[in-house]
Amino acid sequence: MDITTQPSAVGMCPERLNSIRTWARHYIDQGKLPCCITAIMRRGEMVFVDAQGYSSVEDSTPVSMDTLFRIFSMTKPITTVGAMILYESALFQLDDPVSEYLPALKDMSVLVSGNGDDHIVEPANTPITIKHLMTHTAGFTYAFLDSESPLNEQYISKDLDYNSQGAPLSEWIEDVAATPLSFHPGSRWKYSIATDVLGHLIEVIAGQPLDVFLKDHVLDPLEMSETSFSVPDSLSDRFASLYKYKTGDRFSLLESKQDSQFRGEIKRFQGGGGLVSTASDFLRFQQMMLNKGSLDGNRVLGRKTVEFMTQNHLDGDLASMGQPKFGEVSFNGIGFGLGVAVVIDPPKTDLLSSRGEYNWGGAASTAFWNDPAEELAVVFLTQLYPSDTYPIRRELRVLVNQAIVD
Q1: Residue 328 banded pLDDT, cuts 50, 70, 90
Q2: Cα(327)–Cα(329) distance, rounded to whole angstroms?
Q3: N or C: lower Cβ tally within 10 Å for the chain?
Q4: Alpha-carbon distance 242 to 58, whole Å?
Q5: What's the pLDDT tens digit per position in 123-178?
Q6: β-strands 384-385, 242-246: how paired?
Q7: Distances in whole angstroms, Cα of residue 194 to Cα of each of 20, 110, 129, 335
């Protein structure tokens, strides 16, 4: 991935952009991050690329623009685009009950109180709709978000969170259905396995495995040739290792590139976090979205569909929907569209941003955002778990936006 135009030609200051390099170098030199890549496009042109550190610290493999990263939850917008392709073919409506396609999710229960196996539930007062899945308002959760709830134990024992070697989605959905919801559908927002359920919905409606559908309808049309659910042996040398924060602003190896669950046969294709990608591939997805659905003559979605997805679909911001912050990021002034968070009130965010900017990140501290008002696409890739270890996403927003001069 090369710079295609000078930053000043598209209204960005080269000297100010260089502060991103200094910032990234500080994180790496201080031993806080193993590596990082920052790539910026404006007005359809690549204007900044910075790659520092090691994709494998143990063998001193330098990170490069073709390094393969676990993007985890940055898979969610791609899966949602896949679902919207089916929506554009009138194969479902957003307010359809999910149980029309996934019968196991009919007559769901909601946790009321209790601990462990001794808990009280009540019937859900409304069906889960497909839109609930896309907006994380369905009532599902993640085990790591409910450590004080009896749902934590159930999600762990039933293996409901991410596991590429777990039972296939057709079996997994039965365990999901047998687990109480965290809240009544539509009543609040909570990050969850909802996009994994959406991935299985795609399989049922399309009659194809999720990996095949996404490849045929999203990845291949966008020429995202190195984005997939597994890393083949031929590309293993380019796969980054995953690290975990440890006390003292240091990190330790969590998953090597050789022994990763992203290698070999994948048994469960999870639309909520299963993809591996490169910076150049993911930027192609971002540019398609900025272009309102097309890239290099290939149209993936209609203009109206992308505009619809990137509007706020909640009654207020995420803070008013029960989520004041997520990790290091405040959710004041942040809404949620279909598969992406959306800035709806920049001053409330206390962060340099534009109304209508949409974004998301991944568990290994990866992040992206698109700013349609500024014709800007930014992707940041590293491999440090968990994603809230450092305020990387907030800091990078400021560093990028302060470099816009026209």
Answers
A1: confident
A2: 6
A3: C
A4: 11
A5: 999 999 999 999 999 999 999 888 778 899 999 999 999 999 999 999 999 999 99
A6: parallel
A7: 34, 15, 11, 17
Tally helices (H) and strands (E) across the chain.
11, 19
Q: What integer best gives the mean pLDDT of the chain?
A: 96
Over its C-alpha atoms, the chain yields an Rg (Å, rounded) of 20
Q: Which residues of 310-335 are buried (b: 16+ CB within 10 A; e: fewer)?
A: bebbbeebbbebebeebbebbbbbbb
**Nearest one of 159, 157, 161, 124 to 142, comparing CA atoms:** 161
CA–CA separation, 387 and 129 (whole Å): 29
Strand partners, 70: 276
> Strand 298-299 vs strand 294-295: parallel, antiparallel, or unpaired?
antiparallel
Residues in the chain: 406
Q: Kindly write down the DSSP assignment for every residue of 193-213, as one continuous string.
A: THHHHHHHHHHHHHTS-HHHH
Are the C-beta atoms of residues 9 and 405 closer than 8 Å to each other?
A: no
Please report, for residues 74, 213, 262, the alpha-carbon distance to residue 224 in angstroms, rounded to integers and kept in the order given: 14, 14, 17
pLDDT in tens, 180-239: 999 999 999 999 999 999 999 999 999 999 999 999 999 999 999 999 999 999 999 999
Phi, psi of 140 (to 5 degrees): -80, 175
Place of tokens 């676990």: 70
Chain position carrying tokens 């979605």 = 301
Say if residue 324's pLDDT is above 60.
yes
pLDDT of residue 116: 57
Strands 367-371 and 376-381: antiparallel
Q: Which residues pair with residue 109 across a beta bridge?
A: 123
Q: Lowest mean pLDDT of 1-5, 71-75, 103-107, name the range.
A: 1-5
Characterize 11-26 residue by residue with b for buried, 16 or more Cβ atoms within 10 angstroms of its Cβ, and e for exposed: bbeeebbeebeebbee
Q: Phi and psi of 56, rounded to 5°?
A: -135, 105
